[in-house]
Amino acid sequence: MSANLTPRAKFATALLRTAAALSRATGRGDGSVIGGRVGLIVEPRLLELLADGRHVVLISGTNGKTTTTRFTTAALEAIGKVATNSFGANMPTGHTTALAKAPKAEYAALECDEHYLGQLLDAASPKVVALLNLSRDQLDRAMEVTALAAKWRQTLQASAGQSTIVANADDPLIVWAASVCQRVVWVSAGQSWTADSAICPNCGSHLDRFGEFWRCTNCGLNRPSPQWSVAHQGEAVVGPDGRRYELNLQLPGRVNRANAATALAIASLFGVDPAQAAPKLSEVASVAGRYARVERDGRQLRLLLAKNPAGWLESFDMIEQGPPVVLSLNAREVDGFDTSWIYDVDFTSLAGRKVVVTGDRRTDLAVRLEVDGVDFVVVDDIRAAIAAVPPGRVEVVANYTAFQDVRAEFNRVN
Amino acid sequence: MALSTLRIVWLYPDLLSTYGDRGNLLVLAHRARARGIDVEPMQVRSDQRVPATADMYLIGGGEDGPQAVAAERLLDDGAVIRAAEAGKPILAICAGYQLLGESFYANGRAYAGLNILDLRSDRGPSRAVGEIAGESAPQLGIGPITGFENHGGRTHLGQAVQPLARVTAGVGNDGATEGAWAGHVVGTYMHGPALARNPKLADLLLSWAVGVDPASLPPVDDTWPERLRRERFEALSAAQ
User: Fold this and answer.
1) Is residue A95's pLDDT more than 50?
2) Domain locations in chain B?
3) Each residue's pLDDT tens digit, B207-217
4) Catalytic machinery residues of B
5) SS3 annotation, chain A
6) Has domain B5-239 been given CATH number 3.40.50.720?
7) pTM of the entire predicted model
8) Chain B CB within 8 Å of residue A351 CB
């Protein structure tokens, strides 16, 4: 940890903290990215130096990274201090800042952008790497998803020799990527979006599916038996020895129970008793504004972030039956400029309820809903959306920058 | 309109469905039903026979590997080639468009296409990603086109096809023309749900399938699609 840092690395760390603090003070954001950038210019090996001697877990995948990282942090805090990039800054600049800010933390839970997994494996020598899922996301600028899985497979083979992998047995792309590793703990974390893995990533033949089971009839790639899973009945995680760990999560949906299963699997590799860790997960009420509940003019809004088809389908599974739904869509740079993916989302489950549409690309949503036979009203912004629904509960589903716009309206609620 | 049910085949969604390609099937079904025409959507996987008797065929976009596999299976199957010869409407998007030509590039080499459209595709100097717009061929009567493109290929048109449009923004085939058509076959680099932003192209395909003049289709309320088109054209002119 920081006691072992070279003078140059200490200087870089001090500059990083100053830059981050300045950025926060001037209202430019939380300073994670600029701080890390400054630190890495002064000492290019800063991330590696700061990670040295700590027990690190990397968490990556298309969806659920931020929440699983938060759950994991909560679980690991049972045994010590944890450094984490809780602001969602999930590239090396953000990781560097997270470690610099917590010099005394013995553990680090780092959410990692899918495209930086290789770099982080080399820099942070993680004890555990958790791979959640892969599906289509930001298609105009990201790699196509099978190519990303192939890159992971290569990277893991080259750089993950010392790590234990916690991987989702239900996602064929994840299984294919992780199966090159020696030590893998399989979690049945579900797959809400199967369209990107109709074909075997290994040989191109059709995968046979039966419930959560899948296998390739040609090359034999199949679903490994999971050691960890979400209980079929009630809210619980079932561990490797068949023992049940009851959950009492504040976060909704099956997908968050699956994130909890992954977090408990990670924690147990760090020596945390899952029975001790599970209650910690129920203390998580929201994650950087996700799932947060806010109130305005007698309307109780719950904020759901959904960035891609899998995320929108998961959020439709979480929302309560009955209350009005506000959908907000942007297509700014970090969202991806292409809105085609909204046609991969089935909106028909929203038919019959009040639907309000907003965001920069609300007209795209309007056309999409009309095609699915869902009635809607279009409004200019979140304020108008609140005015358009009666007092009571409201579910808000928004993609990345649209979500940040909604958060900004509520004083950047966490 | 004599047809009781319009059978629309969506080919190989297991291989070619990268960018919301389902949208074209949904838009066609929505616009047909608005005219009282029943639609039977048929999703045909790449390990199934292609029905010979459908009224329209849709082929979507995808990555190199699946594109090459799809071309090989469609050549073996033969039903799409016969459907084109019989004058059935076909809409092909991006990778699907390329594989209707004489040849295309994938995985670093040339593959034989179905040779339904007189064109061939190769690799361009850079990936074309972004909004695309163009003035369409006047005889199609579909107005200016608007879409989103994301492809590394360039397409060279032969004598027996017409460009779908002259490019006003984006790249399309080669920076000058976009897409191609011949008879009742249309190919385009406007990827994914191209018909959502081009409702008159959807109606043209429907009119070909039903065998009527497009002008005789009862009008549909296009307030939202027209507003979307206006927004996309305005966004392009603001950027230029």
Assistant:
1) yes
2) 5-239
3) 999 999 999 99
4) 94, 191
5) CHHHCCHHHHHHHHHHHHHHHHHHHCCCCCCHHHHHHHHHHHCCCHHHHHHCCCEEEEEECCCCHHHHHHHHHHHHCCCCCEEECCCCCCCHHHHHHHHHHCCCCCEEEEECCHHHHHHHHHHHCCCEEEECCCCCCCCCCCCCHHHHHHHHHHHHHHHCCCCEEEEECCCHHHHHHHCCCCCEEEEECCCCCCHHHCECCCCCCEEEEECCEEEECCCCCECCCCCEEECCCCCEEECCCCCEEECCCCCCCHHHHHHHHHHHHHHHHCCCCHHHHHHHHCCCCCECCECCEEEECCEEEEEEECCCHHHHHHHHHHCCCCCCEEEECCCCHHHCCCCHHHHHCCCHHHCCCCEEEECCCHHHHHHHHHHCCCCCEECCCHHHHHHCCCCEEEEEEECHHHHHHHHHHCCCCC
6) no
7) 0.89
8) no
**Taking 50 as the threshold, does the pLDDT of residue B168 lie above it?**
yes
And the tokens for B95? Answer: 């990778």
- Please state the domain extents for chain A: 42-281, 293-409
**Backbone torsions φ then ψ of B32, nearest 5 degrees:** -70, -45
Query: What's the pLDDT tens digit per position in A100-158?
Result: 889 999 999 999 999 999 999 999 999 999 999 998 887 655 567 888 999 999 999 99
Across the interface, of A341, A363, A372, the residue whose CB is closest to B231 is A363
Annotation: CATH topology of A293-409? Protein-Tyrosine Phosphatase; Chain A (3.90.190)
Task: Encode pLDDT of B17-51 as tens digits.
Answer: 888 999 999 999 999 999 999 999 999 999 899 99
Mutation target among A371, A376, A377, A380 for the B interface, most CBs of B within 10 A: A371
Q: What is the dotted CATH code of the domain comprising A42-281?
A: 3.40.1190.10
Residue B2 pLDDT exceeds 80 = no
Quick check: B63 and A147 CB within 8 A? yes
What average pLDDT does this structure show over B173-193? 97
Select from B17, B30, B228, B229 the residue whose CB has the most chain A CBs within 10 Å, as the one to mutate to test that interface: B228
Q: Do A337 and B63 touch (CB under 8 A)?
A: no
Per-residue pLDDT tens over the stretch B70-84:
999 999 999 999 999
